[in-house]
Amino acid sequence: CFVYLIPGLAAGLALLIYTGLILVLLNAFNITLTLPGIAGIILGIGMAVDANVIIFARVREEVTTGISVKTSLKNGFHKALSAIVDGNVTTLIAAAILWFKGSGSVKGFAQTLALGIVVSMFTALVITRIIIFSLYAIGLRDVKFYAKKFKKERKIIDFLGKKAIFFAISIAVIAAGFVTMGVQSGKGEGALNYSLEFKGGTATTVTFDKDYSIKEIDSKIVPVVEDVTGDHNVQAQKVKDSNQIIIKTQTLNLDEREALNNALADKFGVDTSTITAENISSTVSSEMRQDAIIAVIISAICMLIYIWFRFKDVRFASSAVLALLHDLLFVLTFYALARTSVGNTFIACMLTIVGYSINATIVIFDRIRENLQVHSSEEALAEVVNESITQTLTRSINTSLTTIITVVVLAILGVDSVKDFAIPLLAGFICGGYSSVCITGTLWYSWKRVQFKRKKAKK
Questions:
Q1: Phi, psi at 244, each rounded to 5°
Q2: Residues contacting residue 381 through CB under 8 Å, at least 6 positions apart
Q3: Residue 111 C-beta-side C-alpha neighbours within 13 Å
Q4: Are 39 and 351 in contact (CB under 8 A)?
Q5: Residue range 221-245, pLDDT digits in tens
Q6: Which of 37, 325, 362, 428 has a CA 20 to 30 Å removed from the CA of 71?
Q7: What angle do CA 245, 246, 249 make, to 5 degrees?
Q8: Which residues make beta-bridge pairs with 206?
Q9: Phi, psi of 50 (to 5 degrees)
């Protein structure tokens, strides 16, 4: 509302309707919500916001050139249509592949993501349009409600002039991730901090003399278990209608089990004779991991083919897929450096980045395609790329901020398992915004220059 005024209000109302529709449809289709499923909903909300931002960024551009408000609204929806459709269709392709090839929690993610994409397109292109034209019809027609002031021509930022710096930063960060994983693996600590879902462990069932709340378990019991076992990825689960708590840790030998039992007896007065323990296998099977990897690879190939078809240039498609790989490696680096627990949420996080990153890239490529219709010569190529990135910069920042706000709230208010998902996702969204603005356009430009050089060499 602050940035886009009346259009922002319309977008906010449409987003409320979107959320209501999602809740109704989740109930209607009886979809079971898992953490990856919730990730799909979050991504859907981000894309619903994104569609509105794309539309009203266009509207504001039209208004500030002096065109009438009504015409600006019509032009804004029309010019934003291709970017919204292409961005959503590429993500929908990924969701469809993940649904058919994935298994377990991956299918849950694909379900909610596909549902979110369809509903977000409907609300952005239909509901938002109805609301904004209704507000215009009841008298909110003054230009001041749609743009704060007429702006001078925006100064074009030379992103291509800094491409060597951007590429160097990306290579350095990704290399740091691989080096860290190699060092950690050499120490015998594992390349990544795999959780119980990936490597299994020990489940200890303890009967306490009182009913502890979730907050008390996290603040009192879990620290004791961490101190004794040296495991900082402890999971505690209450048994319904009892004082029992199931504590899941890394695999413990007999001496470690006895030490844990004695510590619980000393700290909480637990009767050690009632404590039971058993080894548990990993819940994320090698088959599920393999399915997820295959699904992502097939999704990338299908997205490449679609973008190639839509943009009539394989360089757009290959640049988008390379940027996608770049973002995934960035997030992997974060997991390696921060030693964040790698569990079920890891797959959900990576899949969310796939959907988010490709959507952000499409918006910039759509603007480059549009500007190429006016200037397509080799001499104007750099200007076209810099101008296109600059024109979409506000949209990139605003979309990233609105999505990041959602994830920051999850990181602050969520329980530990949600934080293990939200914090890497936050890093992924920041990286997605960076790669869209600083990497994708420069990649496309570099390959386009190669094409021009080859043509000159043939002549």
A1: -80, 145
A2: 375, 445, 448, 449, 452
A3: 19
A4: yes
A5: 888 888 888 877 787 888 877 888 8
A6: 362
A7: 135
A8: 245
A9: -60, -45
Residues 375 and 215 sit within 8 Å (Cβ to Cβ): no
Quote the CA–CA distance of 343 and 198 in Å, as a whole number: 6
Largest CA distance in the chain: 88
Q: Could you tell me how many residues make up the chain?
A: 459
Q: Residue 154 has what pLDDT?
A: 66
> What CA–CA distance (Å, rounded) separates 445 from 459?
21
DSSP string for residues in 334-350: HHHHHT--BSHHHHHHH
CB-based contact 120:17 (threshold 8 Å): no
- For residues 166 and 438, the answer to whether their CB atoms sit within 8 Å is yes
- What's the pTM value of the predicted model, to 2 decimals? 0.77
- Cβ(322)–Cβ(12) below 8 Å: no
Q: Which residues contact 432 (CB under 8 A, 6 or more apart)?
A: 327, 353, 356, 357, 360, 400
φ, ψ at 278 (rounded to 5°): -150, 150
Query: 30 exposed, middle or buried (CB, 10 Å; 0-12, 13-18, 19+)?
Result: exposed
pLDDT at residue 289 tops 70: no
The token duo for 263 is 């510590």
How far is C-alpha 382 from the chain's CA centre? 30
- CB atoms under 10 Å from CB of 434, counted, come to 19
Cα separation, 234 vs 226, in Å, equals 7
Q: Alpha carbon of 110 to those of 3, 41, 207, 295, 352: distances in Å?
A: 32, 10, 39, 11, 10
Q: What's the confidence (pLDDT) of residue 148?
A: 65
